[in-house]
Amino acid sequence: MEAGNLHTSEPVHLSERLAKIASWILPDCRVADIGGDHGWLLLSVAQKGLLGQGIIGEVNKGPFENAAGRIQAYGLGQQIDVRLGDGLSVLRDGEVDQIVIAGMGGALITSILDAGKSKLESVKRLVLQPNIGGHRVRQWLVANRWKLIHEEIVYDAEIYYEMIVAERGAEDVYENQPIPRLILERIGPLLWRNRDPLLRAKMQEELGQMQKVYKQLSNGQSGQAIQRRRELEREMEMWEQVMNWLYEEQN
Ligand code: SAM
How many angstroms does the Cα of residue 181 sit away from the middle of ligand 1? Predict the structure, then answer.
C-alpha cells in the first residue's frame, strides 16, 4: 500500500492458470467466483476494467477473510462483494450472468452446481476448472443441457490443468468421433477435436499414473482387483491408441 493512499493500486499478476480462466470471463458481466479463496481472479478482471459486478463465494472463514481483506485493500468493495457460504447458496436468483468454479475436484464442482440449480437460470456461461475428475463435469453438463464451447489445457507450475467453458445448449460434441463416449468424456471432446497442443503430453502423464496403479494391483487376487485391472488395461490401450493417432498426425 502506498503512503498517503488508502488503497493499493499494485498491478495484479495472475498465474497462467488463473489468467486463462480470466480470459474466458465475458466483459462487463455479473460474475460469481465460487470458492474464490485468495480473490485474485476477480480482482484482476476488475483492475483491467472488464468486470461489471463480482461476487466471491467462500465456504471457509480463513479464505473468506483473506479475500475480503484483499478486496478492501484494493478499494474494490463496491464492485466485488465477498460472501461466506456454501456453493451457490451465497447468490440470489438472477444475480449473476457467469459463474467460475476453479481449483476443485470435478465431483465437488458438480455437487455445487447441482445443489444450486435455481441460481443458474440467469447464467449464460460457466467457466470450470476441475483439478481432477473432469469427466464428471462433462457428464453433468450434458445431463443439464449445457454445451461445451471451449476446452483447453494449461501447463502451470508443472501441472496440467483442464479448463472447461460451457454455455446453454444441447449440441452433442461426442457424436461422430472414433473414440467411445466414455473415453472421450475423460479425454475431453474438444481437447481431442481441436487437437489441443498439450493433450498428448497430458495423456502421457496420465498413462504413467495408470501404469503405476496397474503395477500396484498386479498381485491382487480379489474380484475387485481383477476387475479394476481389466478396466485399466482397456483404458491404457485406448490411451495409447489416441496418443498414437495424435503422434501420427503431428509427424
Ligand atoms: N478458485 C481458486 C483458484 O482456482 O485458485 C481457489 C481454489 S482452492 C483450491 C478451493 C477453494 O474452494 C477453497 O478456498 C475452499 O475453501 C473453497 N470451497 C470448497 N468447497 C466450497 C463450497 N462448497 N463452496 C464455496 N467454496 C468452497
Answer: 30
| 190 falls within a domain | no
Residues at CB less than 6 angstroms from ligand 1: 34-37, 57-60, 63, 86-87, 102-104, 108, 112
Query: Which of 133, 157, 172 marks a domain boundary?
Result: 172
- How far, in Å, from the CA of 144 to the mean position of ligand 1? 23
At 232, which helix (H) or strand (E)? helix 223-250
Task: Name the grid cell of 54.
Answer: 463480482
Tens digits of residue pLDDT in 131-181: 999 999 999 999 999 999 999 999 999 999 999 999 999 888 898 888 989
What is the rounded average pLDDT of the residues 226-247? 93
237 shares a domain with 141: no
Judge whether 210 and 236 are in contact, CB under 8 Å.
yes
3 state SS of 13: coil
How many domains in the chain? 2
Threshold 0.85, pTM exceeds: yes
Mean pLDDT of the chain: 94
Are residue 141 and residue 206 in the same domain, yes or no? Answer: no
> Residue for cell digits 488395461?
233
Give a yes or no: residue 20 inside a domain.
Answer: yes
